[in-house]
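dumping these here so i dont lose them again. two proteins, back to back, each one seq then structure tokens. dont judge the mess
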Amino acid sequence: MPDFLLYALVAGLALALVAGPLGAFVVWRRMAYFGDTLSHSALFGIALGLLLDIHLGLAVVFGSVLLALALVGLQQRQPLASDTVLGILAHSTLSLGLVTLSFMDSVRVDLMGYLFGDLLAMTSTDLAWIVLGSALVLAGLLWLWRPLLAITVHEELAQVEGLPVAGLRLALMVLMALVIGVAMKIVGVLLITSLLIIPAATAQRHARSPEQMVIIATVLGMFSVCLGLAMSWYWDTPAGPSIVVCAAALFVVSSLVPARR
């Protein structure tokens, strides 16, 4: 197996390993639109990273965390629905990133690579960042699993029991920001939400417990990575979108199977 294909496979499997449990929370808490907003804001993080000459993955995480804090602040100050605030932030940060990039004449930016991924151009340094970031997010999810599950099942009851609901919500947003920063090289910032949602939504129909749903979603995500890379290798299709297409095909096939009661 060529080195670049091995790097792509390991990186994709590392992302799928963390996208399974995190995607389950995205589906349970109906945060799909929030994930889209974070992915749109990633372009602003890329522009910020190029402007300040810092690592683009860290810049994307920083920009996403800023957006999460802005969302919390706007929800407290403005009498607007959450989807309205998310729509404002998503398109504003995306446009701000594009405008900022347009002023950098001396910088050549591969927007297609950032937006839709460039998995087969993975280097050993990129792989190390992805594995490290995925391990940090997975450790955070394992540590906060029970509190996050408690606020997902019944937020008011969790608050009565003394859990820091606002802090846990923010922690979940930060973990999503980390995953988006990690996944930028794999499937691109515009497709990462699909990899979070589709395997989890597929698993939800056939799981009997939260843990079972996480395991099924993780396995489906890893299978989608393997199928997508094989599709890219043999048919010369873009790797990131191929992974998402395979995940969507698994969802369609799963929808034909009767759901478990």
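---- next one ----
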Amino acid sequence: MTSYAAAGVDIDAGERAVELMKSKVARSRRPEVVDDASGFAGLFDASALLGYRRPLLTTSTDGVGTKVMLAQALDKHDTIGIDLVGMVVDDLVVCGAEPLFMTDYIACGKVVPERIAEIVGGVAEGCRLAGCALIGGETAEHPGAMGAGEYDLAGAATGVVEADRMLGRDRVREGDVVLALASSGVHSNGYSLVRHIIKLAGLSLEAELAELGRTLGEELLEPTRIYSLDCLELARSIDVHAYAHITGGGLEGNLSRSLPPALDALLDRSSWTPPAVFEVLAGHGKVAQADMDRTFNLGVGMAAIVPADAVDPALALLKERGLPAWVLGEIVPGTGRARYR
């Protein structure tokens, strides 16, 4: 005789994980969330959209890539969910959308209830920071396909924006200014290169590096900064024309997506000093500047394009909210690409 448990799937552990995460998920609740006793689906009261003239629903989905492997190596799982939320909701806010709710999916080799609760607790904390609700999710146990200590996670979010307030390249004008919004570090892109550098250079995640003021592992697991509430408040307060979420592809690749065909973003590399972690990675990995530019955010996690007369109030608002920001460049005639002077 055999059983599901003998095949490697522990239903009891899954149920315990759900119980452990409930209180953490509750912290992300919004008033529009409707309870569903069955738990098969998340419910959100769409009457909240009746105040819009023409609401456009937006959606985004993403994961955190191989950053999960570092979380597993260091046995630290309480912040990787924040990374997930940041990667998803900050794509939504680029068009000016408010993130409303999110769902997550975790696949693992073995359900360890406490570990799953830590992961989901991070997702819930990320949702709280983003102002959206975590209304559902799924944890799947895949014995044989993944090792007992391995897992991966992904998520999807839905947001809303008023049609005539949607941001984007159509609003960008010659003479606009590009503002940089600081990243918290590497965020969640480029970790395959990060791991390659660690392996080639023989670096230890537990090593204290003077340049970083903490261990390499602590630096690399610094959670992705979540910009949605800051970007929404900025768009409510001044005439923001466009945003660009700086992820894989770097500043040039991502900012170009927010430019019209006849305009360029001319960026000033001397306007900021990238965080020390990027110098550490480039130095130990002997990575060329062009590859650093294409792979990492280099200290700029979000860019905002605003009219020239909005620069001072925009920087003042962001400073008040505790988000470092500076003038990164300007919009000039061109061919629709971001480039350095």
